[in-house]
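Hi team,

As requested, here is the filled-out complex form for the flavin-adenine dinucleotide run. I kept the field names the same as last time so the parser does not choke. Let me know if anything looks off before we queue the next batch.

— J.
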Amino acid sequence: MIDFTLNGRACRLPSPAPGTSVLEVLRTSLGQDGTKEGCASGDCGACTIALQGPGHNMSTANACLMPAHQLAGCDLITVEGLASASQTPTLSAVQQALVSTHASQCGFCTPGIAMSLAVLHVRHQRQIDQGEVIDARQRDTMIDHALGGNLCRCTGYRPIREAAHRLLQGEFGPASLQDAGDSTAEAHDTAPDDEPDTGRFYRPVTLQALLALRTEHPDAALIAGGTDLMLEHTQRLRDFPALIDTTQVAALGKIEEGEHAGQAGWWIGAAVSYHQLMPLLREHYPDGAELLTRLGSEQIRHRGTLGGNIGNASPIGDMPPLLIALDAYIQLMSQDNERILKLEDYFLDYKRTQLMPDEIIHSVFLPRPLPNQRLAVHKLSKRRDDDISTLLGVFAWRRDASGRAQHWRVAFGGMAGVPARAPHLEVLLTLQALESLTPARLTAQTRQQIEQAVQADFSPLSDVRGSREYRLLAASHLIPRVAQRILNERQPTTSLTPLESLDAYLAQS
Ligand SMILES: Cc1cc2nc3c(=O)[nH]c(=O)nc-3n(C[C@H](O)[C@H](O)[C@H](O)COP(=O)(O)OP(=O)(O)OC[C@H]3O[C@@H](n4cnc5c(N)ncnc54)[C@H](O)[C@@H]3O)c2cc1C
Ligand code: FES
Ligand code: FES
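And here is what came back:
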């Protein structure tokens, strides 16, 4: 049985098959069909729900990618719960805002948009209650992020954004979602129950139990946020005989200061979500935090985890190139063994890694920034929001006493079957005078040297996201941008911050 609350009411659901999504149970077993299915792949946001539960504050999620078993102990709020949360039979503030601005036409996207805005409204209110001052520009960014995972094909975003602005300005009253504060619900080790034998969903709460399950069931897939694995079910119609959930194991959900290989840094548990990771990156690696805002959508960032991003071994995952450039390590663990590898040595070949069948990814060690260390991150994708990288280039360097950029570590995703370093580019950047690499000074000969270095480092494939030729050229074109950035930092010639001056989307607006 799965026990949770649905729009404030206690709900008990017979255990479905392990891969059954929240969306499936809402629309079938629970008869709550306000939540829509548009794509079943996390892209459209029509299925957006709000959750509060063990380990997370009020947040949005894509119901199509969340296994129903992970509802256990959660407070689930769907679009049906918006109006009923208020005492009087009137529309909630969010609904009033959407109606007043004519922000809906066919209405298919509207339940998802209403949920994204309702959660935004609650969070915005909490921040204000905590004394934060949020200016118009910050509000605009919050709205962009909140709506980045919701597509509308007929209304257009202007009225939807207007609804959001007026909502946050308080025109329709206070946030009306049931705001129970941080959940204090406790997790319990759940034994599989005796219901129809549709497979097993294991939710261990101790590391020992997780490692034992991994040994006993080597064929069962590990699942964390499900934002990648669940696509196997929704797109490829794969049934999972068994799943092992990592998200209830406290040791995997923590970020702890520590040391490794003589460096201070942080051990980040594999089940830490992007949302949890954001404050650390914002403080210590702002360019890394900027990348996170481009990783999926809010719905994905609330649920997706670092371990899942490395565990899926995708050559276009966003975290590995960042972590490799920052010289991160990965800790693997089984019942009998524990080992720590450089992350750059973990990936062997396309979707092949050092992970043994009885092992899990326990955590990642991220070193603290070194003195005078800088970072530049370039994600190229067809859309700014909610889109996987075509390629991702991450450049880390340190400035020596004379201000020269040295000690380069450059890593790319999307340029090979695995995320990898670019040793020839690192040498070129070390030896070449930076001025000669800037767009204004670049000669045909230097351009050719850059292209040769990229080709010596990578032999990318063509796929739907970009051809081999595009990838090689685009990677080469990043070098003059990075060189220009470093020179801008030495002699600022523009009023834009370095992040802004490199953001193609901002520069166009
Ligand atoms: C709409 C959409 C947009 C996306 N955008 C991006 C993007 O911009 N950039 C990007 O990089 N990714 C993106 N993704 C992919 C995905 O969200 C991320 O890779 C995410 O980090 C996966 O984490 P998860 O916890 O959801 O993984 P899950 O789906 O739970 O698991 C993914 C894989 O990792 C394995 N795994 C999980 N935990 C462990 C562990 N502790 N040890 C070993 N193996 C483990 C699982 O067995 C599975 O094979 C997107 C996905 C969607 C649906
Ligand atoms: S149905 Fe499109 S994101 Fe879930
Ligand atoms: S109102 Fe039709 S898709 Fe948004």
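Two things worth flagging: Residues 104-110, 152-155 surround FE2/S2 (inorganic) cluster (ligand 3) (CB under 6 Å). Residues 179-191, 505-509 have pLDDT under 50 and may be disordered.

Thanks,
J.
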